Structure formats: C-alpha cells, structure tokens
C-alpha cells in the first residue's frame, strides 16, 4: 500500500443505466436500475479508488455491502456515485457511498473491502480448488463402488 492510502480519499463516478443494468421481470416499461447491478457498480468504484493507492501485486476484494436502494432509476438515466474511504484498519477498508440520479438520491450505504496480495490469493484459491476436487471425488467414490 502506498502512503497516499488514507481515510478521506473520495471519488465520483458517473454512469448511464444501460439495458444490462436493469431488471427485466416487470416488462419494458419498468426497466429500472437493478439492485445487484448497483452493488456491482459500487464495488467497482471503490476498488478503482483503492487501486490508485495500492502497490503492484495488490488488489482488493469486497467483504460486506450495506445499502439502502432508495429510489428507482430509469433506463437511460445518468447516475452519480460518490465513494469516500472513511476507515482503514490495516488492510481493511470501509467506504461510505451516496448516489443519485437527475431527480433524487437513489442509494446510501457502506462497503467494506480487504486489500490482498494477488499472488498469495492465487495460491490460497488453488489450494481450495484442490480440496474441492478431493471432496468431490470422495463424494463420488461411494457411488462408483456401489455400482460395481
């Protein structure tokens, strides 16, 4: 982590609610910003702010999202997300989030991220993948033995 990574850092991201970001289960007239896509956009905005202040080989992963999705945003509307780093405890980062469209506030909340070493994370995930394969093989072994 660079010495520039400190509480108080902030960034503003503006995006357009495109079709990919909308719900589709209530018909075309009700295509509005989907909450899962809003969460994704919040995570991306916070990660990108962190990346500006991390060393090569570091990244971050989301660990908690707490939001109030306050209002519907229509397909084609612009959204502005403001993310602010409010806490840093070792590698744990906490952000406050506010967002609005042209008409009203649409979201407020907090997002937690953890700064990781990408090489160590890759090793840990490879180890978990190995354990998952072993667990799957163990589950299949009794089935295969019973068939013989």
Helix segment tally:
2
Radius of gyration: 20 Å
What is the strand arrangement across the widest sheet?
1-3-4-5-2
Q: What would you call the structural class? A: alpha+beta
The CATH superfamily is identified as Hotdog Thioesterase
Q: What is the compact description of this entry?
A:
This protein is α+β, with helices and mostly antiparallel strands. 32% of the residues lie in helices and 36% in strands.
Question: How is this structure best described in words?
Answer:
The chain is α+β, with helices and mostly antiparallel strands. It contains 2 helices and 5 strands; from the N terminus they run βαββββα. The protein has one domain (10-118): Thiol Ester Dehydrase, Chain A, CATH 3.10.129.10. The chain has helices spanning 35-51, 118-147, and strands at residues 10-16, 58-69, 78-89, 92-101, 105-117. Strands 1-3-4-5-2 form a 5-stranded antiparallel beta sheet. A hairpin with a 2-residue loop joins strand 3 (78-89) and strand 4. The radius of gyration is 20 Å and the shape is flat.
